[in-house]
# Entry
Amino acid sequence: MTRSNSRIVTAVTFFLVVLIGFSEREALKEVHAQSSKMTALPGMPPVQNPSDIYAADHAGELSPVVRDFPPRIYVPNSGSNTVDIIDPKTYKIIAHFPVGKQPQHVVPSYDLKRLWVLNDLGDSVTEIDPRTGQKGETLPVADPYNMYFTPDGKYAIVVAEAKQSLDFRDAQTMKLVESVKVNCKGVDHMDFTADGRFLIASCEFAAELLKVDVANRKVVGSIHLEQGGMPQDVKTSPDGKVFYVADMMANGVYLIDPDSFKRIDFIATGKGTHGLYVSRDSKVLYISNRGEGSITVLDLATRKPVAKWQIPHGGSPDMGGVSADGKVLWLSGRYNAEVYAFDTSDGHLLARIKVGKGPHGLCVYPQPGRYSLGHTGVFR
# Structure
């Protein structure tokens, strides 16, 4: 073989190796994509970025459905049986109306078109039009302490705390489809696995967590936490590999492996750990410590606290959400009849707004995201 022919053979061989390698990589990507489609809950919108399930929730990602909605803070006052609406630009209440007995949370609908006020002891839910801020119809719904939506959008899951059940209802009409009884007291918060197939719920008065098969509507596992614990909010990590569970008596967050459904770690944050909120860039988790009036900022990459913001003269930060641009964290002051606005760049308090008695699950709306999974605003 001549030197020229040898060079040609070498070049062709290299080209084939590169081509085969490229084809293998593409084939593996396709297999992974098909596998993801096969394992995801049927009907759930595809995950945009497997390493960040909140990719659609970043600043500037407002859905066309909500783009023209005025930014507002909707505050359910559990002790006053009212809702206050705050203009985030002026920090002033611009609307106020009565609702049913003991409103607990304001929840964005799966399709983003409306908000639901959950009147827990009133056994009803009241609609709000987020385009106008006007109160709409009130529907009968038993024991609506909290509410979520299945990732395929078919069902609302009413968290009936007193009934000890997860009530699957038609997401549009709120008609009951199936009531799933749970053998634990105080079921109240949850989040879904990255593939949408399972949810993990906290049981406040049983120091227990439940794992539920969403499609089959069955409890498939449980974890007992430390005795005397009171687990609260639940949040999936951006990569879907860990669930964070706030515990107000343990004064920190448990880390749970969603696949093995085992406890893998615990991080102390502050007294009365309660609400969990992912930043708009998916880099940190804001954790409200209701018992000491502070917010812990947790780095989601290192799983270590990097800052703590203290409310001047104390407070009781509870539930809320992050502004659409990511610059402000809004939280209710449960036992102080007030609402807090924190600058997320350094944690300083921007505003402290007096509202009705017992403000609880306030909703910042609109927020970025393709669809809502419920609570005060869990989006994907």
Remarks:
- The mean pLDDT is 92.
